[in-house]
Amino acid sequence: MDISLKNVEYRYQADSPFERLAISDVSIDVPSGTYLAVIGHTGSGKSTVLQHLNALLKPTKGSVLIGSREIKAGRKEKNLKGVREKVGIVFQFPEHQLFEETVEKDIMFGPMNFGVTEKEAKARARSAINLVGLPEEILEKSPFDLSGGQMRRVAIAGVLAMEPEVIVLDEPTAGLDPRGRKEIMDLFYSLHKKRNLSTVLVTHSMEDAARYADDIVVMHQGKVFTKGTPEQIFSDPKALLELGLDVPEVVGLQLKIEEAFNTKFSKISLSEEELAEMVAELMEGGGPK
Ligand SMILES: Nc1ncnc2c1ncn2[C@@H]1O[C@H](COP(=O)(O)OP(=O)(O)OP(=O)(O)O)[C@@H](O)[C@H]1O
């Protein structure tokens, strides 16, 4: 399912004394099957963009196309259930939204709310718990007896049980330790590939953006500052650093090597292996000229 934002503006509390322009003239395409990362400073408009992807927010100018459904500024939109079913959002700290007595009931809640039978919802809960790598026995437990990492996985299983075509992730690893972070990010990436999903990841981690995304959008002060492939975005590290954003560690290392040797490699490498090869080639060629 394709999603595209066309010249979207959003004002919080529009037409009130508290009106606040959050994003303007934002155009972003998420073609079916794409993994898109949205990066930018705090307050640059990432979460506001994200909430347009399943019509939690409706543009105050411009339009959003979600599959065949167009959400247009100034128009009353009815029955957005279909859109919400197809686009699942994993918010920051999703475990805060767990509320049922058992894990199973919690996972079944979303699908049943969208009209899935109890039998089917149970089957989906079982399959979702397997997908997130938890044992089935956990289905009978109270979500509040689990560890933080397990609760996060249960909350993610609840979104997966909706069987969405698009998954939107708002800092899904916030608060996890490095191992937990990698496990969750790898889980989303394998689901993305296996189920041919579209994935939109809002992140402060340049490493994750470089490692997983096909495309990156850089937001700055409510506008799209630039967009492109990870190679394109990180090939101009100075522009990102000037915005106060980081670059992946390996890019920072390349800049330091270039400075130390007073040389410039022909491209930016996004993996340690590639950087090591470029350095080896340089040395084999007799070092920097
Ligand atoms: N509910 C709200 N009411 C009024 N203004 C808001 C509201 N939510 C966000 N804003 C404002 O909109 C702008 C964009 O905020 P947004 O949360 O989209 O940024 P962000 O890039 O997601 O930030 P963060 O990285 O901190 O999550 C900011 O100026 C913010 O203060």
Automatic annotation (TrEMBL):
This is Energy-coupling factor transporter ATP-binding protein EcfA2. Keywords: ATP-binding, Cell membrane, Membrane, Nucleotide-binding, Translocase, Transport. One of its GO terms (molecular function) is ATPase-coupled transmembrane transporter activity. The lineage of its organism: Bacteria, Bacillati, Bacillota, Bacilli, Bacillales. PANTHER family: ENERGY-COUPLING FACTOR TRANSPORTER ATP-BINDING PROTEIN ECFA2, HEAVY METAL TRANSPORTER. Its EC number is 7.-.-.-. The keyword Nucleotide-binding applies. ATP-binding (A) component of a common energy-coupling factor (ECF) ABC-transporter complex. It comes from Mesobacillus selenatarsenatis (strain DSM 18680 / JCM 14380 / FERM P-15431 / SF-1). It is found in: Cell membrane. PROSITE patterns: ABC_TRANSPORTER_1 (PS00211), ABC_TRANSPORTER_2 (PS50893).
